[in-house]
UniProtKB/TrEMBL annotation:
<comment type="similarity">
    <text>Belongs to the flavoredoxin family.</text>
</comment>
<dbReference type="GO" id="GO:0016646">
    <property type="term" value="F:oxidoreductase activity, acting on the CH-NH group of donors, NAD or NADP as acceptor"/>
</dbReference>
<keyword id="KW-0288">FMN</keyword>
<dbReference type="InterPro" id="IPR012349">
    <property type="entry name" value="Split_barrel_FMN-bd"/>
</dbReference>
<keyword id="KW-0285">Flavoprotein</keyword>
<dbReference type="GO" id="GO:0010181">
    <property type="term" value="F:FMN binding"/>
</dbReference>
<dbReference type="Pfam" id="PF01613">
    <property type="entry name" value="Flavin_Reduct"/>
</dbReference>
<dbReference type="InterPro" id="IPR002563">
    <property type="entry name" value="Flavin_Rdtase-like_dom"/>
</dbReference>
<feature type="domain" description="Flavin reductase like">
    <location>
        <begin position="20"/>
        <end position="179"/>
    </location>
</feature>
<protein>
    <submittedName>
        <fullName>NADH-FMN oxidoreductase RutF, flavin reductase (DIM6/NTAB) family</fullName>
    </submittedName>
</protein>
Length: 190
C-alpha cells in the first residue's frame, strides 16, 4: 500500500504520484503568436475539455522557476487566441523538441522543422503536420498558486477525419507517452 500525505511530501513526489495516477492525460500542443508576430509552440499535459455548451477547454500552465509566465501564457493573455494541435504518434519527437524552454524571440516551428499554416478563426498559426485542431479564444484566465489556468472557448474544430486509427492520438503516462488507439468495445454512457 502506498500512502502519501500531500501536505507533508516533497512537491516533486506529489507531481510524480499525480502524473502516474491521472492517466492518460491528453496533450495540448498549443500554438500562439505574439503581438510582434513571433510564433510559439509548446506542449502541456494538464489539459482537458470542461463543457460542450459552449465548448470550453482548460489548460493549466505552470510558471517558470523564477515565477515568470511562460511565452504561451503571455501570448494568450496579450492576443486572446491560441490553437490546440492534436498530437499524433508520428509527431512525438517534434513535441519533445518544442517542450524545451526557449527565449521569447525563438520560433519553435522553425526549431522543430514544422510548417505553420493559417488558421480559420484565429490569428495564431496551426501546425500543418497535425491531423486535428481546436482554434480557441481566451474565455477566462485564473491564477492558481504558481499556475495560469487558461479557459478557451473553442471557435473552430478541424480534423482530417475522426477515425482514431488515422488520428493516432497519444497521451501522457507520467513522463512517457502512450498510444490511445486500442478501443474497448464496451461503451460508457456518462
Amino acid at each position: 500500500m502506498i500512502f502519501l500525505r500531500t501536505h507533508e511530501a516533497d512537491p516533486d513526489e506529489v507531481y510524480r504520484f499525480l502524473t502516474r495516477l491521472v492517466v492518460p492525460r491528453p496533450i495540448a500542443w498549443i500554438s500562439t503568436v505574439s503581438p510582434e508576430g513571433i510564433k510559439n509552440l509548446a506542449p502541456f499535459s494538464f489539459f482537458n475539455a470542461v463543457c460542450d455548451e459552449p465548448p470550453i477547454v482548460i489548460v493549466s500552465i505552470s510558471r517558470r522557476d523564477d515565477g515568470r509566465r511562460k511565452d504561451t501564457t503571455d501570448n494568450i493573455l496579450r492576443t486572446g487566441e491560441f490553437v490546440i494541435n492534436l498530437v499524433s504518434e508520428e509527431l512525438i519527437d517534434k513535441v519533445e523538441l518544442t517542450s524545451e524552454e526557449f527565449p521569447p524571440q525563438v520560433d519553435e516551428f522553425m526549431v522543430a522543422g514544422l510548417t505553420p499554416t493559417e488558421s480559420f478563426c484565429v490569428k495564431a498559426p496551426s501546425v500543418k503536420e497535425a491531423k486535428a485542431w481546436l482554434e480557441c479564444k481566451l474565455f477566462k484566465h485564473e491564477e492558481l498558486f504558481s499556475y495560469d489556468l487558461i479557459f478557451g472557448l473553442v471557435l473552430c474544430i478541424r480534423a482530417e477525419n475522426l477515425d482514431y486509427e488515422h488520428l493516432k492520438p497519444v497521451g501522457r503516462l507520467s513522463g512517457r507517452y502512450c498510444r490511445l488507439t486500442e478501443i474497448n468495445t464496451r461503451a460508457y454512457s456518462g
